[in-house]
């Protein structure tokens, strides 16, 4: 019996989406933020309820990135970013001080499959790095590709649900993946990467890593620059075709774990160069994309990769469960000198990742050796108890009286606030509170088309075959819409996918644009207020800066 959905129930009489409290959801596409590019707000109840429930959908296996392997090593900074002192851009000592080997633990993973899924799966690879610096932990959590499928965290549970197995058939159904993607053009760029050979790295040692999100570097003067972080493998990059992956999987479902483990055991330590891309801290209207949009790459001819340091992995875990499986990462774990941008995926991940760890491993997961900071940065908090508490005295080296003071402020001892930096980073923020989607959508199609044209012939052939095989398993409306999207990315891209999928190209081209979304290759002139335009006179002049 076919597992494809029928068209029944696809009309306008479908039930209304609500929160778990029964409140109708009027916008499921965007977080509430201060203006289009401003920060998300803590009162995003709809998102918080959605993401915290999503974080608890599986126990105890990770909901995503369940299949993984890890290794220990060290990071060394060059003290420069390109040809300039690193201190010009950041006051983070881990990035400015030379001659220091900062301990690291790296966990590589696949995203969608379960703990025992094959490592030959076509899937982005997680690339999570925990740097145990003298100023505390810094977690740089990313993947092997430099972009993601979506640009707003409120869509993350929907995306993963669409990519995970069907709740009825318990299989990953292609139509579910493409149904989501066909209604989310921002994902076209990532789909073009994942369905090409880049979707199956040959090994963890031979793949790139990227922080994906936009962060900020802040220097001693309180001046910030937007930054993207990248790991470039000195072993080179190698990927697999679907046929090569199938041949490996027939004999070994854990080939990448084996490859990394054996390389380290024989002393062939994998190494990556740590690079950054930098951009001034403003909205860059001259670009066709928003630099905070994680579905877009920063063109390297305009924003070159600048070397900053190197990472070497030289020791395997002694116990996979204690170290690899209980390792816990969070995008909110930053050191002074590295800061958040208003990237909406980053802001949502910052809540979700650590919330997941508190649920999956436990509220005291940071007391586990694999996650605890190094002794020079031993945590001293006023937090107490909870499940599996290990530290008797979080306050650390205070006297006997200090252990009575588990609050702040106090005139009787206990902990005190750290001194503020001479010049703090401050960001000017103004705007109407509402739900916004980015108004710069040209590159939803342009960058995917550019990637198509940049691929080698064999990579394009593999991409077309993979897409064609998938789309032949999809209901015709989904396949037609996907061809429409690919044709708008590049005419040859769309034509070849249509031929491979057995789709009439002219029927696909005749489709209207998606409802509620701008036509491809056109800008919306002003941000759209999806909660309604402010009333006349509601706009206020900004106070003097």
UniProtKB/TrEMBL annotation:
Cofactor(s) recorded in Swiss-Prot or TrEMBL: heme
GO cellular component: cytoplasm
Gene expressing this chain: katA
Keywords: Heme, Hydrogen peroxide, Iron, Metal-binding, Oxidoreductase, Peroxidase
Protein name: Catalase
EC number: 1.11.1.6
An annotated GO BP: response to hydrogen peroxide
Catalytic site positions: 65, 143
Domain Catalase core: residue ranges: 18-416
